[in-house]
Amino acid sequence: MPDAPTGNIPALQHYRLVHESPNGAIVIMFPGSSPKMNPDIKLIKIFEYVKGAHIPGNGIIEVPLVTNMGRTFVYRQESQGGEFVVPYSTSGNPYDVRASGPYHIDGTDQYINVTENDVMQGNRILA
């Protein structure tokens, strides 16, 4: 069995979750083990490509999200080249997967709102 990846995995800067199915996936945890239903891993997830809003800054940016199934998680991304390219809007999102607050640059007092137009057009946001 291959080793787990090490180091950082690049964020999906230009992809955002827009829908997940209510059905959990059937997973095999270990070779030879019986398949089990895992309600936390959804059978189908639909993503879309967006240009992404560009926010200047360094470090880690995060935004709380709620899916169409009521699942909550925090989208986190590390800056690259002094900016973040973020795929989720904090207002005007037409989908049922939504931000439940503004973006926050970890370790700072910076909170940033991003419109749907900013994400779709690839606009630069002045923090």
Q: What does the model show?
A:
- The chain has a single domain, classed as Immunoglobulin-like, CATH 2.60.40.3390.
- Strands 6, 7, 9, 10 and 11 form a five-stranded antiparallel β-sheet that branches. Strands 1-4 form a two-stranded antiparallel sheet. Strands 2-3 form a two-stranded antiparallel ribbon.
- It starts with 14 loop residues before the first strand and ends in a 6-residue tail after the last helix.
- It has one helix and eleven strands.
- With 127 residues, the chain is mostly beta strands.
- The chain is 5% helix and 40% strand.
Topology of this protein?
Layout: E1 15-20, E2 24-27, E3 36-42, E4 45-49, E5 53-56, E6 60-66, E7 72-78, E8 83-86, E9 98-99, E10 103-105, E11 111-112, H1 116-121
Antiparallel strand pairs: 1-4, 2-3, 5-8, 6-7, 6-9, 6-10, 10-11
Any key phrases for this structure?
disordered N terminus, two-stranded antiparallel ribbon, 40% strand, elongated, 127 residues, Immunoglobulin-like, 1 helix, mainly beta
Percent strand equals: 35-45%
Mind telling me the CATH class? Mainly Beta
Seen as an oligomer or otherwise, the chain set is: single chain
Which geometry do the CA atoms define? elongated
User: Main β-sheet: number of strands, strand sense, barrel status?
Assistant: 5 strands, antiparallel
Structure annotation, total helices: 1
**Span between termini:** 45 Å
Q: Low-confidence spans: pLDDT under 50, at least 5 residues? A: 1-6
Taken in chain order, the helices and strands follow as EEEEEEEEEEEH
What is the mean predicted local confidence, pLDDT?
Answer: 90
- Radius of gyration from CA coordinates: 16 Å
- Count the strands? 11
